[in-house]
Amino acid sequence: MVRTPSCDKNGVKKGTWTPEEDKKLVDYITRYGHWNWRLLPKFAGLARCGKSCRLRWLNYLRPNLKRGNYTKEEEETIIKLHRHMGNRWSAIAAQMPGRTDNEIKNHWHTNLKKRSQQESLSNTPKDQVPIEPTSITPSQSFNTTQDSPSSQSSSNITLCKTFTNSQSLALEDEFAFLDADTDLVCGNFWFEPYMLDISYFPPSEPEYFSPFFDAQLWSYDN
DNA sequence: AATAGGGGCAACCGCCCAACA
DNA sequence: GTGTTGGGCGGTTGCCCCTAT
What we know:
Layout: E1 6-7, E2 13-14, H1 19-32, H2 40-44, H3 50-61, H4 72-85, H5 89-94, H6 101-122, H7 152-164, H8 177-180, H9 182-191, H10 210-221
Antiparallel strand pairs: 1-2
Helix pairs in contact: 7-9
The protein binds a DNA duplex through residues 1-4, 14-17, 36-38, 49-52, 54-56, 58-60, 87-90, 101-103, 105-107, 109-111, 145-146, 148-152, 193-194.
Pfam family, one: Myb_DNA-binding
Subcellular location: Nucleus
Domain HTH myb-type: 9-61, 62-116
């Protein structure tokens, strides 16, 4: 797929990444780490916004990513996790090493959504109204915008109540641990979707920090 | 052989939150 | 307490490919 390259009014390039851009980004992060996404493209010699660099790195360039077809097991896992979590793709991705939230989200919308709906319909008795898999999600237990899932302090309690009291939720399979271990649910599992990525943090050698100090000078100059 | 339409997926957009000054 | 900034996330868009007609 080749998306037509374009630039916005600030000269920031948009569209498909070229192999040259990928190489620049990989080379830079491998050497210096992603110490600041906003400034990184300037130092890496890329005419991209920081968000674009971050997305490209996280979804396609970072190591240990699985590419290609999903296994049957992976698809089953996605369906089950989605049944419990709803559209919390980052949390789902955190349970699937090597897969990214964007990739899982795409795969869901293109393949698994229909399948999941068909399965739920086929499993529904005739006199029962089918329930859309995403109709009950953890996020919907929050009352206001400040109670979004990532608003940890107040919403953890609500979320925990939702799950510890939700005996009606089907937790019959290997995901029963979600219900059994409330510390897990209230702690790292739900609200720390990504493990801390320190694999590309710059080593504590002075030379590797030079971009950081350069960045400070740069920001003072601008 | 031509082409219309849907599928697949990379990338962007906009919002939210936490950290910090 | 308030404003700013960077990072993270889910939703959506847009373009190419494939297939049916």
